[in-house]
Amino acid sequence: MKAYIPDDHNYAAKALFSRRVTVTSYTALLGWFILWHMFLIPVPTGHPWVISLLHMLPLLAFIRVIITGNPRGHAWLCFVLLLPFIQSVLAATNPNTFIYGLGYSLLVGTLFTSSMMYARWQSRYNKQLAHWDNEKKANSKNPES
Fold first, then answer.
1. 144 versus 102: which is more confidently predicted?
2. Considering the entire predicted model, what is its pTM?
């Protein structure tokens, strides 16, 4: 394991900001699915709720990760977001669904980026906390330094 190199970055503030963006874009993407499939362009041959739920199912699997703020889960969310991103780019290339695909791509891209940065910054903040705790323990055992 590599030694921890102390730095002066404020990872707590960065992680908090990226977490807020992640939660906002996550809920916006779920709302986007409901809005699009239920009201804007519902499929005439199917049940709109079923289609909405099928699109939301991979994202709903990560709702616990979003609530708890687990950095590793956010990294896994980034892997899963690659599939909706492909779907959004395909929707953006179709002239009939260009606006939908563009908005969808922006939401997925924002969620991907903020989730990735949250995983990175929260992990680094956790390492900072562990390093500071180890320093406090070492200083309390050795009071003359």
1. 102
2. 0.86
